Amino acid sequence: MYSRKKRIRKTGLIVLAVFYMIFTTSCGDDDKKKDYWLVKTVTEGMYILCQGDKASGAKGCISYIDLSEWSVKRIPLSGKQPRDIVIINDYLCITYPDDNVIDIIDRRLNMINKRIDTKRIWGEKGIGPRRLLHANQSLYVSFDAGYVGKLNEKSFSEEDIRQAGSYPEGMAFRNGLIVANSDRGGGDASIGFIEMLSSPSLSRMTSDILICPTDILMINGGQYYLDKGTVDKDGNQIQAGVRSMRQGEVVNIIDATLFTRINGRMFVVNAPKTIPETPVTFGYYDTDTKDTGTFDVDGLENPSAMGSDEIDRRVYVACNGKDGNSGYVNIYSVEGKLVRRVETEPNPIAFAVSYGSEVVE
Question: pTM (2 decimals)?
Answer without folding.
Answer: 0.89
